[in-house]
Input
Amino acid sequence: MKNSVGKPGPGQPTTGKLNKLVYSAGIILVILMLAGCKGPSTEALQAVDYAPLSNDDWDVSTPEAEGLDPLLVANLYYDASELEKIYSVLVVKNGRLIAEDYFNEGSVAQKALVQSATKSVTSALVGIALDQGCLSSIDQNMFAYFPEYADRVSDSRKREITIQDMLQMRAGFPPEESDQALWKAVWSGNYDHLVVDFPLTHDPGTTFQYSNLTAHWLGIIVARACDTDLESLGRDYLFQPLGAEVGRWRKDLDGYNWGAGELHLTARDAAKFGLLYLQDGEFEGNQIISAEWVHDSLQTYAEDAYENISGFKDIGYGYQWWSATVGDYPVNFAWGHGGQLIVLIDELDMVVVVTADPFYEVYGSQSWKHEEANFKLVADFIASLPEG
Output
């Protein structure tokens, strides 16, 4: 029989030699780790070009003018350049665009698929519907806007679901990823009738469960209440007042824009949306969304909504916005699959935007490692910033 461990070698080292080898290997490993932690040199950081492009849609500035160390900003872009799936990184400080760069397939004109960051836009449209009088209250029952199905509901708890429950992901519907049949339903293209068939796993208003269909039904409610589609409502009352454009926004088979995702935005327009929320719904002197709605949206109604992610800790959920602590700073953020991020740091008067490969219909470790890298990129930057 052949030796299963391979060809004979030089023999096993003695215990003394083995200890020396282990000790030497440990020293080498420590040296390599220290070398890896050293980071780029000052000269390398000074060579990084992150100056915003000269377009007319943003008031631009520099880190120095806005009170930031330019080398800390340069380090953000140095690290971003090493990520193979990232498209853009933008930093807004004191209402001005101070840093911008594009990588891989990204460009200033690219309308990136922001995936579930769309949910935060849908939430904004709920606020606009209230401001415009289309919706009277978020205490309204969900089935007030699905009257054709009200008599077919066998689970009476569904008649208790409010718009507020849906905004907080407390409607009682399960995460679709938890069951293959439920996940298949998400991609069916026909959704409104599922309000009857989709099961409740918790009583409405009691438990946070992240549900794509809940967000989509919320969008359908807004569309029905305002007698228009989300794309038109968003264009007229949100994006045009921001000087932004609605990119492609996929519709389901019934003609409703997908309220849980599928919206495309440029990174600059995503940054404007973030700045709008950072400024309590005001943009260039115009109150686009009520300050009260913005305030309520960014509260944390569900704590421990997600496990910690690469420096984002104590992750909670508001009205289709996430919250967390990064370093010493509380943040709010819109988050989409693949690592699409619109991060608001109120204490620093700052917005950080990341767009990236959306990994369309790709899930698991193949996409998550890149998504997590985007979180780490932003977390390391925020944590490096001094207070004040």
